[in-house]
């Protein structure tokens, strides 16, 4: 049994967390894979596909949506190919992890978002988000899959719990923003970011 699995088991015991949790709209699984970790999540949001897409790709306003970001901006755009720079601090219990990332984003509008780290605080990160309209267009089903490899041994020890926490928190905040924007559209109020 690896040291990571032992550390994760101990941390899980202390925090009362499991590596697969289905709570409300978000279900997440985190597993070790070679020198990294794979995160898979499904999210069901009670909003139209267009609203979900608008929030997921609103990189210039993402720091107002996700509380772990201090800045987020599109550094360059060529059609559906973007370079996004973000920085912030991820927090988990007593731990905090400052990060800076530059990501290449490839968009397939209303269907898929692929992201790959080009540089930053993490050794490697690649992700894919797939969206499907559900419930006759009144909801969206989101599938998320990401692979992470950390530079730090300490980050690797707590990665399973940390990643579970971060993905859960980020998608809950994004779904809350989706619901807010959807309610704003329905009410006819002018849009705000």
Give the helix/strand layout.
Elements: H1 3-15, E1 20-23, E2 26-33, E3 36-45, H2 49-56, H3 62-65, E4 69-78, E5 81-92, E6 95-108, E7 112-120, E8 124-134, E9 139-149, H4 153-157, H5 159-187
Antiparallel strand pairs: 1-2, 2-3, 3-9, 4-5, 5-6, 6-7, 7-8, 8-9
Helix pairs in contact: 2-5
Classified by CATH, the class is Alpha Beta
State the helical fraction: 25-40%
**So, the CATH homologous superfamily?**
START domain
Task: Give the overall pLDDT as a whole number.
Answer: 84
- Unreliable stretches: 1-24
Total of DSSP H or I helical runs spanning 4+ residues: 5
Euclidean distance between termini CA atoms: 47 Å
The amount of beta strand, in percent, is over 45%
What can you tell me about this protein's structure?
With 193 residues, the chain is an alpha+beta fold. The protein has a single domain, classed as Alpha-D-Glucose-1,6-Bisphosphate, Chain A, domain 4 (2-Layer Sandwich), CATH 3.30.530.20. The chain is 31% helix and 46% strand. It contains five helices and nine strands. It has a nine-stranded antiparallel β-sheet with strand order 1-2-3-9-8-7-6-5-4. A hairpin with a 4-residue loop joins strand 8 and strand 9 (139-149). Helix 2 (49-56) crosses helix 5 (159-187). It is globular and about 50 Å long. Residues 1-24 have low confidence and may be disordered.
């Amino acid at each position: 049994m690896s040291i990571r699995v032992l550390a994760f088991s101990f941390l899980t015991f202390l925090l009362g967390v499991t590596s697969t949790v289905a709570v409300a709209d978000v279900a997440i699984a985190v597993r070790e894979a070679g020198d990294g970790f794979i995160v898979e999540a499904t999210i069901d949001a009670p909003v139209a596909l267009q609203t979900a897409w608008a929030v997921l790709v609103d990189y210039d306003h993402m720091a107002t949506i996700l509380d772990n970001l201090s800045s987020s901006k599109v550094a360059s755009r060529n059609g559906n190919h973007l370079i996004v720079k973000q920085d912030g601090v991820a927090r988990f219990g007593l731990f905090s992890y400052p990060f800076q990332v530059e990501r290449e984003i490839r968009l397939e509008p209303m269907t898929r978002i692929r992201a790959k780290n080009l540089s930053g605080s993490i050794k490697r990160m690649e992700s894919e988000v797939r969206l499907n309209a559900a419930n006759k267009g009144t909801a969206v089903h989101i599938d998320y899959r990401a692979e992470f490899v950390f530079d730090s041994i300490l980050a690797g020890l707590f990665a399973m719990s940390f990643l579970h926490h971060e993905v859960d928190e980020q998608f809950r905040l994004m779904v809350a923003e989706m619901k807010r924007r959807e309610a704003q559209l329905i009410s006819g109020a002018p849009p705000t970011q």
